[in-house]
Structure formats: structure tokens, C-alpha cells
Amino acid sequence: MFGRFAEKTLYLDKAIGACCHSACSDCEWREPDGGYRFDLLKAAVPKWLPCYFERDFEDERGCHVPAWASALFPDGASGSITSAEFADRFTALDFMMPMGPKGAIKADDAPSAEALDALWSWLCDGADQEALDAATVLRRLQDMSPDETDGVIGEGPDFVDWKAFAKALGAAPFERW
What we know:
Elements: H1 2-5, E1 9-11, E2 40-42, E3 49-50, E4 55-56, E5 63-64, H2 67-72, E6 80-82, H3 83-92, H4 113-123, E7 131-133, H5 134-143, E8 159-160, H6 162-168
Antiparallel strand pairs: 1-2, 3-8, 4-5, 6-7
Helix pairs in contact: 3-4
């Protein structure tokens, strides 16, 4: 399931500017502890589940709408989704083997009904609901993150990685999901 949510690109803070990402010792985006603030991150394989509906840098770096947000909520952040719509739209998301899980999962291996039900139940916070609004889904995805920060722009955690995703759903991170 993570391979349907995960993406290769993560948009963080547009205020950073177009950093070259070369870890320069005199970089203006370097933090006092030696770390860096980044505008965006890119990976060779899907690695992050972005926890935002849209991040528009309003410059040459462009705008990013995560695939999950546009697929599950085609009407935007004010939309809602039923459990049946969720199952159909989630299954229709393209799968690409993400960074994290061990082994290999074929792209045509659709999530089981049990797996979809487990994810839906988690998104509903265990309540028996027929529909969820986009804001609740975003909040529950952010709840998966063990990151205690409010993200780089104060909207909650920016992403969920494989390990946090698996643990939130009650699976050992090495199991297939």
C-alpha cells in the first residue's frame, strides 16, 4: 500500500530558495547544528508519503500536488470520500516499489480487501464511518509520523516514511504491505 502513496519528490519550504543541495559548508541554508533546511528533496525511488494537499513555490520549482491527494480528492482539500470510493481510487493509484519494505511486490498485486479495510479503519481512527473529509485524512496521515515537529512551514509533519507507515498500521516494517 505504501508503494501507491509514496513519491520520489517532497516539497518542503519555498522560502529556502533554490539551494544547490551540495552540502556547502558556507551555505546560507545551513543550520547552527550543521544540518540543512531544504526547499525540496528528490529520491531515485519513492520514499515519502507527502503530508500536504499542495505546495506551490510560485517560481521555476513549480507546484506539487501529491498523487494521493489528487486521486482520492479530485475536488480538492474540501472534498470527502466514502469507503467504496476510497477502495476504488486507492487501488487505481499507480504502484511503484518504494524504498523501505523488504522483498519485491509486483505492480499488478492489488491490495487485499483486508489491507484496504485496515487502512480505512486507521484513517477513521477506529470509528465506523461511511465517509471521511480530506482534512481528516491528512491529519490521520500526519498522525502516522513520529516527528514531533510542526513541519518546515508549520502545517504538521511534512511526510511519512515506510517505517512509520507500517508501524502506524500495526505491522512490523519488514512485512509486505
